Amino acid sequence: MDNRSLLMQCALRLFAARGYDAIGVQEIAEAAKVTKPTLYHYFKSKRGVLEALVAEGFQPFLHDLAEAARFEGDLPHSMYRVITTFFAFARREPLLYRMQLAMWFVLPESEAHQVISSITQQQQQILEQLFLESAERHGNMRGRHRIYSATFLGVINTYIGISLNHSMELNDEAVHRLIQQFSHGIYS
């Protein structure tokens, strides 16, 4: 593994375990068994490491999510594809997903939130588009695409968070349960 990849891997492990603000450049370099100048050569700063992690880690997922969220006339099927895309990514990249969740809930002024917010906004926009397009067929949904996308993303992230803490399996049953819960509410 090259130094750049090793630095990113070590930074991800540290950020996910203890939070972005608790980790310094020296600790990342030591974990990767390289010098601080090596880290600065590749990333310029700790924020640069985080930006690279986010850009390289999430871009393929965002592409897959945009594909999954295409509305083709069947909202439950689109939701199924979206959820399975999220679940697959969370299973494939559990540390990256955990880091994203943690950074979403820190103060908006923090450096970590500023970096991760671009990813969460893109996820939100993709889901908004799904609900906006589906409102053409389901008139009672008009004007609610923002709140629907936010709550849908929130429920997905809740399921993933529970799974990351080993209290639920992200399987097909969970996908169907999530669709049922979101579509019909708690009395379903």
Quick structural summary:
The chain has one domain: Tetracycline Repressor, domain 2 (Orthogonal Bundle).
Describe the protein's architecture and organization.
The protein has 188 residues and is mainly alpha-helical. 75% of the residues lie in helices and 0% in strands. The protein contains nine helices and no strands.
3D shape: elongated
DSSP summary: helix tally: 9
**CATH fold assignment:** Tetracycline Repressor, domain 2
How many structural units, i.e. domains?
1
The top level CATH class name: Mainly Alpha
What integer value in Å does the Rg equal?
18 Å
N-to-C CA distance = 50 Å
Find the count of extended strands (DSSP E, 2+ residues): 0
Can you tell me the CATH superfamily? Answer: Tetracycline Repressor, domain 2
Q: What letter string, H or E per element, gives the SSE order? A: HHHHHHHHH
Q: Helix share of residues?
A: over 70%
**Main beta sheet strand tally, sense and closure:** none
The chain-level mean pLDDT equals 94
> Which structural class do you get from the secondary structure elements?
mainly alpha
Which spans of ≥5 residues are poorly predicted at pLDDT below 50?
A: none
Name the beta content range. Answer: under 5%
Assign the CATH architecture. Orthogonal Bundle
